[in-house]
Recover the amino acids of this structure.
């Protein structure tokens, strides 16, 4: 842990706040669902939801928008988690949106289904008549997210209007809406990446093995190490190597950067994050597309 | 590992206009405390260059939306995070242009401390009055005045002393709780993180050191303990067949197992049988804790009810006064009907009278002008369809605050603090 003193006193406050938000969701919405990606943030959300409603079960389903480009471990982990905690699990496939002609596969070496998820997500919200989608978005992740509310209103087209958001005061959350509109709610808005990791360590939360060091076939693109998968197109200069890596975030395999690391325990990971000089989204190709990449995707209805 | 939330997290809001160097100050705090990551720095360095700036424009760190970067303005409250080994900080950064009051009220509502910037060349001006008034109205635990741009007044001690005297009298006027005044230069970093060589005559602490050490713990001895019920937990399982728990967050003071409590509005009394926390047995819960309470007796309780200690009840009111800040472009309707949210309770409300409107630049009261527009602050009387359980805002921020919602648009149009 070298020179970095771990201070966990603030975790209790962040947890209390997130649990408060979870309970407001259950009280204010008729059909919420928790967006579950298999990544650490959504795993933390499930843990917080369990705490919020204990000893009852989580009163809303988990929903996974599946790009089909997953790490196998993520899917296995997802299914086990839902079973262990008795959660209802909804899975919606980007492939279905493509087959229905609603989404078009991107072409070229940087092709990703990340952006296509928006179509599937908005369809799923309509199909399941959801009035609230709970997300693991955090304000520290990205500068457009820094302006996000806990209770974030979406119009009937699923769009976010950042310039016309409802003021949010004290801990009074206004989830009132008209038919067809919905909310995105972010219980861990005020957490940073380090908070999430410290909390995982403090609560001893189980994570997919991908977050710990493992040998994986990877290649370097634009200064970021990406996991290799058989369907990925490589540029002529790119070489696949097998290295010791771990994932810092887990998303669609095509745009999730991996970190060269031999960190094998939560303790080692927390130290590594604390010492890191690059943000976790710095390793995500989806955010490198332009300066306002996240803002644009969010306006359209992205997570 | 023992958790002591009272020293771990400080939320502060920053106030100052575009020219006061507020974004520069925040950028400086993030930069000097090494909270800026390499990719963020790379990103803003590149953007600064593209815009033709010689120095790295640290304000680009906080202005996240495309329109903001293009126009060089801040649109809305932005939240920023940084940590030192001693504390985690959440900054609610509010812009300084027209919608100022609305944004500062919003930012301050979740903050413990307000940092107010004053340009050393201009001293206390109208907007300093406005900022200080709002910070005091929202009952900040501390207000820190940063007398900025000391470099432009030759780091003059005399200049600082003049401003300090004005600030002290202003703070007294608006009833601020606790104030601190620091001479700084955000641009060059004097007294922000490191002690200034140029301001040797100043014996006080640097801004960061003050933020790291200032006391912000809630008063756990407060008698105004309130537990608004958020949600009723009834597991449909064999193991917990008879479990009936009331989920919520304690505000003000502490609750103990065995406490005699009264449930509002029914006024029925019972005792706290247990305090549930994910299977951990607890004997008490303090302000801020999200817990579940079980009572000795079977009482009908639902969301919007409030559990309180029987020896200190809030006022059960059908009519009360608030200091209200209007947020919406549509002016307030005299005798207008709105939805009022108070903690977890929602009732219909009528704005029955406008008592005084406040000019927050001069602090003069106006009893003639009854037109309440966006960013106005007024003392108004609210009548509600069914009683709400209120305390003076100064005694409890949760039971002392309300918002108003427009029934037609569902927008949050106003916020109010209960005054007696």
């Amino acid at each position: 842990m070298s020179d970095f003193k771990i201070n966990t006193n603030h975790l209790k406050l962040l947890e209390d706040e997130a649990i408060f938000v979870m309970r407001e969701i259950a009280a204010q919405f008729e059909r919420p669902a928790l967006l579950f990606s298999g990544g650490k943030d959504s795993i933390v959300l499930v843990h917080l939801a369990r705490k919020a409603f204990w000893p009852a079960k989580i009163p809303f389903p988990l929903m996974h928008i599946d790009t089909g480009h997953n790490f196998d471990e993520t899917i296995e982990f997802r299914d086990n988690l839902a079973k262990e905690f008795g959660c209802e699990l909804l899975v919606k496939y980007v492939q279905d949106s493509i087959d229905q002609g609603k989404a078009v596969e991107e072409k070229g070496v940087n092709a990703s289904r990340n952006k296509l998820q928006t179509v599937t997500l908005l369809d799923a919200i309509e199909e399941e008549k959801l009035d609230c989608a709970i997300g693991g978005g955090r304000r520290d992740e990205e500068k457009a997210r820094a302006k996000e509310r806990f209770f974030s209103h979406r119009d009937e087209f699923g769009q976010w209007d950042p310039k016309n958001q409802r003021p949010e005061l004290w801990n009074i959350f206004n989830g009132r809406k008209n038919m067809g509109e919905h909310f995105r709610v972010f219980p861990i808005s005020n957490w940073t990446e380090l908070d999430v990791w410290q909390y995982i360590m403090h609560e001893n939360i189980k994570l997919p093995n991908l977050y710990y060091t493992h040998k994986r076939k990877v290649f370097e693109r634009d200064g970021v190490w990406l996991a290799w998968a058989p369907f990925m197109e490589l540029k002529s200069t790119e070489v696949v190597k097998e290295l010791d890596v771990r994932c810092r975030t887990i998303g669609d395999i095509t745009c999730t950067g991996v970190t060269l690391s031999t960190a094998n325990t939560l303790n080692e990971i927390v130290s590594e994050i604390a010492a890191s000089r690059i943000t976790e989204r710095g390793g995500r190709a989806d955010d490198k597309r332009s300066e306002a990449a996240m803002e644009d995707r969010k306006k359209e209805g992205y997570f | 590992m023992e958790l002591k939330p009272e020293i771990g997290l400080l939320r502060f809001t920053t106030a100052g206009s575009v020219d006061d160097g507020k974004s520069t100050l925040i950028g400086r705090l993030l930069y000097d405390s090494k909270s800026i990551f390499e990719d963020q720095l790379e990103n803003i360095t590149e953007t600064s260059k593209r815009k033709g700036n010689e120095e790295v424009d640290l304000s680009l760190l906080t202005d996240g939306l495309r329109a903001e970067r293009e126009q060089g303005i801040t649109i809305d409250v932005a939240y920023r995070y940084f940590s030192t080994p001693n504390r985690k900080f959440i900054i609610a950064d509010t812009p300084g242009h027209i919608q100022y009051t609305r944004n500062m009220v919003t930012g301050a509502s979740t903050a413990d401390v307000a940092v107010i910037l004053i340009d050393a060349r201009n001293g206390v001006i109208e907007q300093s009055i406005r900022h200080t008034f709002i910070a005091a109205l929202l009952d900040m635990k501390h207000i820190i005045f940063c007398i900025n741009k000391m470099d432009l007044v030759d780091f003059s001690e005399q200049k600082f002393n003049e401003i300090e005297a004005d600030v002290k009298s202003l703070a007294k006027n608006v009833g601020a709780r606790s104030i601190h005044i620091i001479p700084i230069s955000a641009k060059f970093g004097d007294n922000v993180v490191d002690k200034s060589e140029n301001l040797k005559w100043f014996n006080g602490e640097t801004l960061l050191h003050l933020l790291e050490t200032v006391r912000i713990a809630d008063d756990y001895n407060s008698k105004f303990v309130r537990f608004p019920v958020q949600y009723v937990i009834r597991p449909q399982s064999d193991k917990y067949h008879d479990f009936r728990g009331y989920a919520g967050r304690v505000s003000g003071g502490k609750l103990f197992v065995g406490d005699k409590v009264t449930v509002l509005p029914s006024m029925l009394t019972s005792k706290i049988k247990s305090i549930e926390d994910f299977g951990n047995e607890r004997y008490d819960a303090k302000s801020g804790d999200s817990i579940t309470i079980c009572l000795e007796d079977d009482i009908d309780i639902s969301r919007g009810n409030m559990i309180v200690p029987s020896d200190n009840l809030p006022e059960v009111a059908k009519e009360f006064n608030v200091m209200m800040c209007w947020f919406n472009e549509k002016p307030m309707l005299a005798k207008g009907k709105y939805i009022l949210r108070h903690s977890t309770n929602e009732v219909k409300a009528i704005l029955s009278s406008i008592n005084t409107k406040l000019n927050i630049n001069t602090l003069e009261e106006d009893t003639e002008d009854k037109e309440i527009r966006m960013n106005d602050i007024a003392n108004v009387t609210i009548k509600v369809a069914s009683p709400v359980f209120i305390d003076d805002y100064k005694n409890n921020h949760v039971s002392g605050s309300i918002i108003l919602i427009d029934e037609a648009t569902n927008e949050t149009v106003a916020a109010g603090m209960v005054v007696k």
The CA atoms of residues 97 and 123 of chain A lie 9 Å apart. Chain A touches chain B through 63 residues (CB under 8 Å). Residues 9-195+291-300 of chain A form a domain with the Rossmann fold fold (CATH 3.40.50.620).
